[in-house]
Design brief:
CATH class of the largest domain: Mainly Alpha
Mean pLDDT: 81
CATH architecture of the largest domain: Orthogonal Bundle
Largest sheet: 3 strands, antiparallel
CATH topology of the largest domain: hpI Integrase, Chain A
Number of helices: 19
Number of domains: 3
Radius of gyration: 29 Å
Strand content: 5-15%
Low-confidence stretches: 95-99
Order of helices and strands: HEEEHHHHHHHHHHHEEEEEHHHHHHH
Helix content: 55-70%
Number of strands: 8
Distance between the termini: 91 Å
Length: 423
């Protein structure tokens, strides 16, 4: 039966780091409550040395650093194992280093363990979301060098414009990662003294403030696209190209985007929701589309929802339920859904005109759905919020320009009817 310490999370984290960073020939074991280093040489010889460090969670960071330093002396400086161990012991016994050198391998290994926790253990993040959204954070993490949480958050932030949404997301991802890596759940993979980040509500100084120009840009509401422009855009897609070898790829890609754009238009989908990861057919008397995507924002999580077509005749004319049922191809969006929409449409002449004249963006499809619901169908903000899969508060913050107008119109119509009845 294994000793209790052998099954504790910090032991697994420590051994995983040493294995990944230094190779399987370097191992640490518990020997009578102290740390024993075991090295297998190329000729098969095994060397065992006591590091003089307690075998406990509080010593995990010291064990890791000592083994790294011994590895550096033995492998790269060609010092004997005996001398390397003694040097490290003497250095450690004098005075601790005030500042440790950045160790990118440590952060990368911790991040990989974090991925396993978020995707496979807790299930908080789907593999696809991790690959796309968290993958951007990981790429930034690999580019910077930092010796503590403060330095890491500053360096991550430098990669983006102050106050931008991208910078905010990367900072939030990094801080959440550090909270896990210094917590009990990770086995205290990173030492808390160096790597504990600020609380969630204290990240503002790392996110920064938007410039006056950026504030002006983001304060303007997202533009909705009128129905006639949407139809013109759909008709401009090159789905009628002949099937000649040189053109079939353009046509196939256009067919994929034809379906994607029509889904976004008719059901008011977020770009990320245009995926078979989240779309499915359900039946309650008749078949309908259902979206399983749950968006996390502001401490809450949106609920899966039935999708309602606006306009229903478009749903029928474009045969959308059948196309999803038979799994007609949708575009692959490796770079992120919003960017994928933008990259495909940037060469489309109708889209270029709408962008130049009105400033449309991929989210304009969703905004068009909201505007259609309020102004044509006279639906309330509560109803539209449910149809679009968010709270009334979020809906009003994003779409008040149309919901308020629609409600005022409805109120005026009721008032006029009441007046006429009481004459």
């Amino acid at each position: 039966m294994k000793a209790r310490s052998e099954t504790e999370p910090w032991v697994s984290s420590l051994r995983t780091f040493i294995r990944d960073a230094l190779g399987t020939s370097w191992q640490v074991k518990d020997k009578g409550g102290t740390t024993n280093l075991r090295i297998r040489l190329d000729d098969g010889t095994r060397i065992y040395r006591n590091l003089g460090l307690p075998w406990c969670k509080a010593s995990a960071a010291g064990i890791r650093e000592s083994v790294e330093e011994i590895h550096e002396l033995v492998i790269h400086q060609k010092v004997s194992v005996e001398e390397a161990v003694e040097r490290v012991k003497q250095t450690r016994s004098k005075t601790p280093r005030a500042a440790r050198r950045p160790n990118p391998k440590l952060l990368i290994t911790a991040w990989e363990s974090y991925e396993n926790y978020k995707v496979k253990v807790s299930g908080d993040v789907s593999p696809k979301t991790w690959q796309i959204e968290y993958g951007k954070t990981f790429r930034r993490l690999k580019e910077v060098a930092a010796a503590n949480a403060n330095d890491l958050l500053i360096e991550i932030g430098k990669k983006y414009e102050p106050g931008s949404r991208s910078r905010q997301i990367r900072i939030q991802h990094t801080a959440a990662f550090l909270r896990w890596a210094t917590s009990r759940a990770s086995g205290h993979f990173l030492p808390a003294d160096n790597w504990t980040p600020p609380p969630k509500n204290a990240l503002g100084e790392y996110v920064g403030r938007k410039s006056a120009k950026k504030q002006q840009e983001t304060s303007n509401p997202t533009v909705a696209i009128e129905d006639q422009d949407l139809l013109e855009l759909i008709n401009s897609l090159p789905i009628d190209l002949d099937k000649a070898e040189k053109k079939h790829r353009l046509r196939d890609r256009a067919m994929e985007w034809d379906l994607a754009i029509k889904l976004a238009i008719v059901y008011g989908l977020r770009p990320i929701e245009v995926s078979y990861d989240y779309l499915e057919i359900r039946k309650n008397g008749k078949e309908y589309l259902f979206c399983t995507y749950c968006k996390k924002a502001g401490g809450g999580i949106s609920k899966p929802r039935r999708l309602w077509a606006l306009h229903p005749e478009w749903e029928e004319k474009w045969n959308l339920i059948q196309r999803i049922k038979q799994k007609d191809p949708l575009p692959r969006m490796k770079a992120g859904a919003g960017d994928a929409f933008k990259n495909y449409l940037r060469f489309n002449e109708v889209w270029k005109k709408l962008k130049a004249e009105q400033g449309v963006v991929p989210y304009s499809f969703r905004h068009s759905y909201s505007k259609r619901g309020h102004q044509i169908y006279k639906l309330s903000d509560t109803e539209m919020a449910a149809f679009m899969g968010h709270t009334v508060q979020v809906h009003n913050a994003a779409y008040a320009q149309w919901s308020s107008e629609s409600m005022l119109e409805s109120s005026m119509e009721r008032a006029i009817k009441f007046r006429d009845l009481t004459k």
